[in-house]
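Let's study a protein:

___
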Amino acid sequence: MKTRLLHVRANVKDLERAVKWYEDVLGYSVAASWPPEKPNYVHFEHEGGAMFGLMEHENYPSPGRFNFYVDHVDELWGKLKDNVEVVEELFSTPYGSKKFTILDMDGNELGFVQDNL
């Protein structure tokens, strides 16, 4: 079976608090929210790949891992490592990439990967 990931969503306890963390710590920008009258969902600007969203949801906590592919993983590691909870420090994988994994405010694991080194 082949898969093509287009959209991932993490459930969060407090949407406003989570959005602020993603904006302030990771530098993400909200592209849209829903429903218009009282949003409980947002997704962030993206360039190709999967759209990433957050939803204030009763199934919180439901931690998962979401890997984001980046161009300069060493630089991002330097910016984030002292300001986040680290799950895996920056390391080289046996399949030719480098990555690190952190936790967001709600326990979701966020991996940052640079391929083709």
